[in-house]
Backbone:
C-alpha cells in the first residue's frame, strides 16, 4: 500500500494541474462592451526608399526655430539620426564631426537629427561639441527617422540625399573611422 501513495500523489497533482490549465484555457473571453474605447489605428506612414525624394520635413532646432530640410537641397546631405542615450551614436559623433569639417562649403552637408529632448541634446553637445546643424524630433511610429526609411527604429541611422533631394544610400549602425568618405561617394 505504501508503494501506491507516491503514484497516487503524482496522479492527483497531474490531474489538478490539467484541471487548472483546462479551466484557464476554456474560460470565456469577455467581448468588448459597446462603450469601451478601441485603440486608435496606427498612423499610415509614407516611408521613403532609395531613389525617392526626401520627404518634406520641418523640424525644430535646439532653440525651437523651425528648419525646413528642403533648404539643404543643391548639395548632397548626410542625415544622421541619433540620440544622446545611444552608445553607438555617441561613439560615431567625433567621426561625423571630423567628416563635416572636412567638407567645407561645397562638399556633403551633415545634419544631425536627434530623437531626443532639447535638454538631453544640449547636455550631450556640451560634452561632445559638433559644428554641424542639429534638429530635434520626438521618437514615435511616424517620426522623421521612419519617414526616411528607418522602419526598424534602430539607431544610429544615416541617409545620404543627393543634390537633387533623392535618397541614394541608407545605413543602419555606426560609422567606423574612415568609413564615411567611401560611403558618401
Residues:
Amino acid at each position: 500500500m505504501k508503494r501506491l501513495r507516491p503514484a497516487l500523489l503524482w496522479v492527483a497533482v497531474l490531474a489538478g494541474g490539467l484541471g487548472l490549465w483546462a479551466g484557464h484555457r476554456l474560460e470565456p473571453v469577455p467581448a468588448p462592451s459597446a462603450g469601451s474605447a478601441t485603440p486608435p489605428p496606427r498612423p499610415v506612414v509614407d516611408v521613403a526608399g532609395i531613389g525617392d525624394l526626401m520627404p518634406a520635413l520641418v523640424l525644430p532646432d535646439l532653440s525651437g526655430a523651425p528648419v525646413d530640410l528642403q533648404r539643404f537641397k543643391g548639395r548632397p546631405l548626410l542625415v544622421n539620426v541619433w540620440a544622446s542615450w545611444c552608445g553607438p551614436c555617441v561613439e560615431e559623433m567625433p567621426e561625423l564631426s571630423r567628416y563635416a569639417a572636412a567638407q567645407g562649403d561645397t562638399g556633403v552637408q551633415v545634419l544631425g537629427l536627434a530623437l531626443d529632448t532639447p535638454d538631453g541634446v544640449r547636455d550631450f553637445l556640451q560634452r561632445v561639441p559638433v559644428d554641424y546643424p542639429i534638429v530635434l524630433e520626438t521618437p514615435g511610429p511616424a517620426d522623421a527617422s521612419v519617414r526616411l526609411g528607418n522602419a526598424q527604429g534602430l539607431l544610429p541611422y544615416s541617409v545620404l540625399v543627393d543634390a537633387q533631394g533623392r535618397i541614394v544610400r541608407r545605413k543602419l549602425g555606426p560609422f567606423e573611422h574612415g568609413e564615411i568618405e567611401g560611403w558618401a561617394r
